[in-house]
Amino acid sequence: TTIKDIIYAPIIENKIQPLVVDVGARNGMQEGLIPDSYASFSKLIGFEPNEIEYKKLVEGNTDAENLGIKMSKFKDNEYFNCALWNKDELRTLYLTNGPGAVTLMGDSERHITEKMYLNGDVKNNYYERHVKVLDQTKISCKRLDSLLDNSQVIDILKIDVEGAELKVMEGCEGFFNNKNILLIKNEFLITPYFKEKNLLGHQQIFLDDRGYRLIDFDFNQKRYIRSTNLVNSLSDRRPIYAGDAYFILDPDVNELDPICRHRIGLACFIKKFYSLGLDLMREANLV
How far apart are CA 210 and CA 208, in angstroms? Predict the structure, then answer.
């Protein structure tokens, strides 16, 4: 008997299929983010509005896969070629120089992004290299509540949509009302380079009001300088412009049944919050 057998047992015995939802699924779900041990009995639902990137997903030909990055092997997967938003409507998708910067938020504020040079690259500013709009197209936008039954549980929700994260959350209100999203990993901006502001603080207030606790950050984005006047990076503390935040349905302010508490613990464990995950699984007392 392994640790995996023990902690997965209540989920398998209760015939529960964990659900992972990937909003902004361009490069697929990597095995380093969701291990195969969890993916093998789980379902992945992905949303990718960029038609070119969507085709890469369904054909198993993403940029990440072409670089040799291993993808998680989910028991079931389903992809939607649409964007998530806070209402069902047709909107403009802005196609950018960097494929990872495609957005619904419009053109960036150039007086900000033209003064951002990532990781010491003094030849190309952030606007020219990443967020410069090359083309526009109309796409279908949906509320997650409109596409999925909000009586089901989303174990892990990942949102990476270039400034529109709060709009996506506003379209999940039915899930929030039912306490049916357990762990959220979402990208946030610190530098306000879109006209409509959607910053970390806005997201935290929104989720705190719905019973979620912020538990950690990833600051894996490149840092920037504002001009070509370089100070050596070894001695320079450079600002960040974005990151990822982790939230969980707060186990101390919400009434949770044992299986829900165990599922949150398991989601935390998958994301390497080992002590927190074990605490919640002990409280659930199902193993």
Answer: 5
